[in-house]
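A reminder from the course coordinator: this example appears on the midterm review sheet, so study it carefully.

Given structure:
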């Protein structure tokens, strides 16, 4: 009987999950994920019975392959259109309502509903932060705390580019490409919002030095009805302030937000801020995935193409095709 190829994947975000699904019927696939759950930046936080999508706000579908891959999740109602009005705001108030045409989709009842669905049947190790990859081509091991997992024929890093660069051994042929990727930080503020009527939109792009996005998370399908706000910081401001204490970030974001929405003192007090060190892609690798056939190491993620959920999918799917062809040729 043929021995199955073993593939270790680091990261259970959209890219890692898509890759795993693409290979699961031809290889023995395991995902190592440092968090307790799947989804990576497609993330949802529950605070006092209210849910906040504090990572990806929505996804768009432009590519036919992504469209088809979402069919099953859409049929089960796990991905739904978000039809709320999105505007653009300047400091002096409304600039314009953005043109209709873009269909925005969200996970239902939360953004991580889709990655949870995609993770079905896949061997995932949660709370498994990979500290190092060691070994040699065809016999790779990953270190998770004080244990070593493997051997794997291939190891794929599906973490943000700077984290993947730190993990992949020096012999990986594409370190220059990985190093050319630039990712920005982001802070996300979450709070309930009693005076939401002052903000008659579902969401807005904001032209502001501190804030660049406001959304009423409760306007998305399937969320609890409590009015609540998710605000993302301007990425340039986030990069400059990345090491500042979260309390000071919270105060500055609240001050900036008060130009656009009314936040009561108790809501401000209870507001929570999340720090994303690697949130958006400023400069992509410009290749759909990175594969080194000699070392049997590879990398994928949104940062290969663009900072979007769909790009992460396409990167994982493309690498899945390439590895499937290699496995087939070896059989
Ligand atoms: C605030 C914010 C808003 C966004 N808004 C949108 C939007 O509206 N629309 C849109 O399309 N996109 C948006 N994005 C981008 C979108 O979330 C990403 O493009 C996409 O989710 C990236 O998927 P990925 O699989 O490439 O990476 P990730 O989702 O980052 O997955 C990587 C995974 O690797 C894990 N990991 C990292 N290091 C290790 C390690 N050493 N060991 C084990 N596991 C590890 C991480 O925990 C993570 O789960 C947003 C992102 C952020 C942060």
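Designed residues:
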């Amino acid at each position: 009987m043929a021995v199955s190829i073993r593939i270790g994947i680091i990261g259970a975000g959209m890219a890692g999950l898509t890759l795993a699904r693409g290979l699961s019927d031809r290889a023995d696939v395991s995902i190592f994920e440092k968090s307790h759950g799947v989804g990576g930046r497609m993330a949802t936080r529950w605070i006092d019975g209210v849910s906040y999508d504090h990572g990806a706000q929505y996804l768009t579908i432009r590519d036919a392959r992504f469209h088809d891959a979402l069919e099953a999740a859409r049929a089960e109602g796990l991905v739904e259109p978000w039809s709320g009005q999105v505007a653009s705001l300047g400091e002096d108030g409304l600039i314009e309502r953005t043109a209709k045409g873009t269909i925005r989709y969200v996970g239902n009842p939360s953004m991580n509903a889709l990655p949870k669905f995609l993770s079905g049947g896949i061997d995932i190790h949660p709370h498994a932060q990979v500290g190092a990859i060691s070994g040699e081509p065809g016999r790779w091991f990953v270190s998770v705390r004080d244990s070593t997992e493997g051997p794997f024929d291939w190891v794929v890093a599906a973490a943000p580019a700077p984290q993947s660069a730190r993990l992949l051994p020096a012999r990986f042929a594409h370190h220059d490409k990985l190093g050319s990727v630039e990712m920005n930080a982001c802070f996300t503020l979450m709070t309930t919002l009693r005076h939401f009527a002052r903000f008659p939109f579902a969401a807005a792009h904001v032209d502001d030095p501190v804030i660049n996005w406001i959304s009423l998370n409760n306007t998305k399908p399937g969320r609890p009805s409590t009015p609540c706000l998710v605000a993302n910081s301007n990425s340039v401001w986030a990069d400059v302030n990345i090491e500042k204490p979260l309390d000071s970030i919270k105060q500055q974001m609240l001050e900036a937000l008060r130009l656009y929405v009314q936040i009561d003192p108790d809501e401000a007090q209870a507001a929570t801020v999340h720090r994303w060190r690697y949130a958006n892609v400023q400069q992509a690798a410009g290749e759909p995935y990175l594969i080194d056939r000699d070392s049997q190491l590879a990398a994928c993620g949104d940062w290969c193409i663009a900072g979007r959920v769909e790009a992460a999918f396409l990167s994982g799917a493309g690498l899945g095709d390439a590895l499937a062809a290699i496995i087939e040729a070896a059989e």
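The two ends are 11 Å apart (CA to CA). The longest strand covers residues 272-283.
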